[in-house]
User: Fold this.
Amino acid sequence: MNFPDVLNLPPFLKYIFLWLSLGLLVGVLSGSASAVFLLSLDWVTDYRESNLWIIALLPAAGFLIGWSYYKMGQNSIKGNNLLLDELYHYKKPIPLRMTPLVLLGTVFTHLFGGSAGREGTAVQMGGSLADQATQWLKLNPSERRLILIAGVAGGFASVFGTPLAGALFSLEWMHQRNFKWKTLFPAFWTAFVAHWVCAYAWGVGHTHYSVTEIPPHTLLNLIWIIPAGIAFGLSGKLFAETNHFFSRFFSKLIAWPPLRPVIGGLFIALFVWISDNTTYIGLGVPRILEAFEQPLPWYDWLAKTGLTGFTLGAGFKGGEVTPLFFTGATLGNALATWIPLPLALLAGMGFVGVFSGATNTPLACTVMGMELFGWEAGIYLGLACLIAYVASGKSSIYASQDLGWKKNWFY
Assistant:
């Protein structure tokens, strides 16, 4: 029995009362966790860039991360896939230890020079913190699914400053076939609370991107979206397959899990030392901003794809979404050489298009693009995301994701 039952409320009022309360709680927790996480990432990124010698310690950091998960992580090692597994097939509550493990693991990955993102960490923290209410309030399986969706929405919305996209991402990502109207209010309410807490209560800012030139919606301009969208979808597929390849590679090559990030960290540190280039490690936000402003080397997107897949496959922690933004923005930048659309617009289309292809969430990606770049670009962003979603086929960076109709239609 949960606490609204004690008040003997009618079903609809019980639903509103329960999710106003739980959404507020989960939003405050996930928004605060994201704020602490983002502030930590800013600090470690600045420290690493000012003290590049620390990258030599990446193998040691890798051992600490790998050993911690090996000894204490249990099923937390599955990361985002654990959230999906528990949504589809309830087995046991998501352990609270997931929050500190993934937070510290991601901070260490970035401090010492791994290539990773932040979405996965925020989503896992949001889901882990939210699921503790399952035990405290004795939520039934249906209510538990809602609180997991709310936790994911709060984590995503607060880490990127995109509350609408955060809510839609949680719904689209976790409910490919089985959408229910009751998921709407918890997802959107929690996403906005988490965003407000992170942005206004904690005062944590987010990166601003600029797409100022939007060409007219002529038939020729719209036709040019097709090859761009296909390229973004294939890039998303390559990103996902690269991640899975390196995960299998390290699992087969090295039997003892804590040793995998040690070997991986050694090769990443050698890569940075030999190339004398830190562009492709960490989040890569400065390079993403450059992609909206000036032509960049055509191979940037390939380098980030490979290094991120290698980093995460070796066992380091972090998300995939910001590296997907990097990959998409720089690929769009490169396509500006052949496609007669504005460079910044192509970078923005790639930013969300590759994300759409790799996560199978075209609606959330379209809305995210409009939240970040302005609604004026919506037609270009929406078509790019839809085409990329179709072109990526059955690929997904999340092995446990239910791909819905794509499962039977592609490859």
